[in-house]
Specification:
- This protein is α/β, with parallel strands linked by helices.
- Helix 1 (16-27) runs parallel beside helix 3, helix 9 runs antiparallel to helix 10 (357-368) and helix 13 packs antiparallel against helix 15.
- 37% of the residues lie in helices and 25% in strands.
- The protein has three domains: 6-69 and 109-184 and 305-376, FAD/NAD(P)-binding domain (3-Layer(bba) Sandwich); 74-101 and 187-297, Polyamine Oxidase, Chain A, domain 2 (Alpha-Beta Complex), CATH 3.90.660; 379-463, no CATH class.
- The protein contains 16 helices and 19 strands.
- The model has no long low-confidence stretch (mean pLDDT 87).
- The longest helix is centred in the C-terminal third of the chain and has 25 residues, at 439-463.
- The protein binds flavin-adenine dinucleotide (FAD).
């Protein structure tokens, strides 16, 4: 039972977004209720996730030094491969062995990290209400011509709890987001993930993966030693295999877009069987001990899907609004960022005693004017959405095939280089708008230039 019947801020869901909102609001002296359906936050999460080190530390000071990382491991380099139509070639980006490009991330077991972060929010003064599912919102009596206002929540036990502001951080497919009518998820928006955990003795894992002590002081290996795949048949799948020696586990994850799986007449478990075949070398003798299925936001082929991210009294945070980063689907950082942003705004609303629609609208302005909004309209996303990105890889694949064939049939480079032209024609056609309109790219570029204006002003001032 909650201690009070009314709060400044009710946070629904104690994942990364909810815990961030709760801790920042509690530290600002607000009355905060943190409601979570699990008995312990993180209880139902799949293990293993990458958090953004600096952002997490700035919201939860002491995070990096916390004992939850005692058995953690880390990545050094990065190798991402894009595989096309399951043929024999892979293309990708590889940061060299032993590099430190991955240092700004920290690998956590989400079932442990979520509990730790939520406890920090509670230590800061947020009131926990766990093992409680929020089933509905309470609406204010409609004011003619006004936007409907949310003034509280209804729990699965029938409790009616009032709040000046409700942060819906209840994750993908939020029942509240559907009830408030703000989000409609099309099937293009979903990826399914399957994660398998294998057990193997720590020494054998260290030997196979070649661990050393990295810059972070943690056992480290090169991510990309094992294949880190992205691919396009079906589109937008991703797969990787990670090792955590001090927990005696190797985890294998595969994500695949729902629409693409339907079109390719395959399913996530078939895809996983294929991926496991490619991982035999790492998994030999390892015992499967856990399997978990989960949905997550897809790499974005449809864009954010909401009518509005707020109503007076209510906002969508993180996965509840379908907000994972549209370019590569990292989502915890987006949820954390939005959680903090909203908590800071609620603190201002209380200070100014201004709970107007305009005050809540500042939340949407805030995230739109950050990396969360910028990435949704970046040219990269338009390239995903109209197929240009896929065409780029297909063109590259064809060009490389042609060039290699010419090389090994003794053709000179003056004949090999022009062979790159024709395969890139469909890509160029898409990119310059002969097939698809250029407008979205221009829109993205304009937005980028507008963002750069501040920087150019600063440079100008320095010059002056
Ligand atoms: C396999 C997999 C791997 C991923 N890897 C990464 C990664 O490495 N890095 C990354 O940044 N992102 C990753 N993501 C995405 C990331 O997990 C999400 O974007 C992130 O968890 C979103 O945070 P959130 O706070 O919005 O929601 P969630 O983390 O989903 O938290 C929602 C919380 O609300 C609770 N809840 C739900 N409904 C209710 C209700 N009605 N009442 C009360 N409580 C409720 C849930 O129990 C949960 O605790 C991954 C996702 C998956 C599935």
């Amino acid at each position: 039972m909650p201690k009070k019947d009314s709060y400044d801020l009710i946070v629904v869901g104690a994942g990364p977004g909810g815990a961030s909102a709760a801790i920042i609001a509690a530290k600002a002296g607000l009355d905060v209720l943190l409601v979570e359906r699990a008995t312990v936050p993180g209880e139902k999460n799949m293990s293993g996730s990458v958090l953004f080190r600096e952002l997490t530390e700035s919201i939860f000071p002491g995070f990096q030094a916390a004992s939850i990382h005692d058995t953690a491991s880390s990545f050094a380099s990065l190798a991402i491969k894009w595989s096309i139509d399951n043929d024999e070639k892979e293309y990708g980006v590889h940061a060299g062995v032993g590099s430190a490009v991955m240092d700004h991330q920290i690998i956590v077991d989400r079932s442990v990290a979520d509990a730790w972060c939520a406890q920090e929010a509670v230590n800061a003064g947020a009131e926990p209400l766990y093992a409680t599912r929020v089933d509905d919102v309470i609406w204010e009596k409609p004011i003619p011509g006004g936007m409907p206002r949310v003034i509280g929540i209804v729990t699965d036990k029938g409790e009616r709890i009032y709040g000046k502001a409700v942060a819906d951080a209840s994750g993908l497919h939020s029942n509240l987001a559907r009830k408030t009518g703000l989000v409609r998820y099309p099937k293009d928006k979903f990826q399914f993930a399957v994660k398998m955990i294998f057990e193997l003795p720590a020494d054998e894992i260290r030997r196979r993966f070649g661990f050393w002590t990295g810059a972070s002081g943690l056992p480290t290996y090169d991510w990309g030693l094992t294949p880190v795949y992205f691919g396009s048949n079906p589109d937008f799948y991703a797969a990787h295999c990670n090792a955590i020696p001090d927990e005696n586990v190797i985890e294998v994850v595969l994500y695949s877009n729902l629409t693409e799986m339907i079109e390719a007449d395959t399913n996530i478990w078939q895809r996983m069987q294929w991926f496991l075949e490619t991982q035999k070398h790492w998994l030999e003798g390892a015992k499967p001990i856990h399997v978990n299925f989960h949905a997550l936001n897809t790499f974005d082929i449809v864009g954010y899907q909401f009518e509005s991210s707020y109503l007076p009294g209510y906002v969508l945070i993180g996965d509840a609004g379908g907000f994972a980063n549209p370019v590569e689907s990292w989502g915890a950082n987006v949820a954390q960022y939005q959680g903090r942003l909203f908590a800071e705004l609620v603190a201002e609303m209380k200070e100014n005693n201004d709970w107007s629609e305009a005050a809540f609208a500042r939340y949407e302005e805030g995230w739109k004017n950050s990396f969360v909004g910028d990435d949704d309209i970046s040219p990269m996303c338009y390239m995903f959405r109209d197929g240009t990105f896929k065409q780029l890889w297909l063109s590259l694949d064809e060009a490389v095939s042609a060039a290699v064939a010419l090389k090994f049939t003794n053709h000179p480079y003056c004949e090999i280089l022009p062979a790159f032209g024709p395969p890139f024609a469909p890509f160029m056609a898409k990119a310059v708008g002969l097939v698809s309109p250029l407008a979205p790219l221009v829109k993205g570029a304009e937005h980028g230039l507008a963002k750069l204006k501040d920087i150019t002003n600063i440079v100008q001032k320095i010059k002056d």
